[in-house]
Structure formats: C-alpha cells, structure tokens
Amino acid sequence: MIAELLKLGSFILELLRLCILLVLTLLVLGWAERLIYQLIFGQPVYNWSMGLGNLFVFFMLYRNHFQFKGWYKSEKNKKLTLLTTRIITVISIGLIILPIGLG
What we know:
Elements lengths: L1 H40 L6 H17 L17 H21 L1
Keywords: Membrane, Transmembrane, Transmembrane helix
C-alpha cells in the first residue's frame, strides 16, 4: 500500500516536472528562434509550424535525457532509437525553418 502511494506520488511529481520543463523549453526555443529570425530578416517571425517543431524537440529531449533525471523510475523508460532520433530531428528542423519558405 505504501509502495503504491509512493509510486503515485513520484508519478505526480514527474508530471508536474514534465509540464514545467515543457513550458520552459518552449519559451526558450521560441525566444531564440524569434531573435535569430529578427537578426536575419529584420522582423520576428513565428508560425504554428515552429511551435510544432519545438514540441518535437522537447519530446526528443525528454525521451533521451530528461526522463532519466526525474523522480519517477520505471524499467519501461528507454531512449529513442538512433533512427527515430534522427527522423524527429529532421522533421523538427524542417518545421522550424518552414516559415522561411512560406514568407
């Protein structure tokens, strides 16, 4: 009973940590992208595709790094395969630079 409550508590803490990491990651990446686009094009550019690309980046970072540093420990936690990581990286970069082709 106590072990299940402890596991539930660590799961809830990990969900809270995941939400905080998601918000911080999206804020930092969005800020950096706007700054870079403003330096290159003279105006900040932001598009829905950049947000989606940033979500892919966060997913990859979480699955390959952040999940192993948190409170919730499980034997089911595994890193993404190298091929999956490369595919997600290419897709996210494509989504992040898509506004250049649209604008």
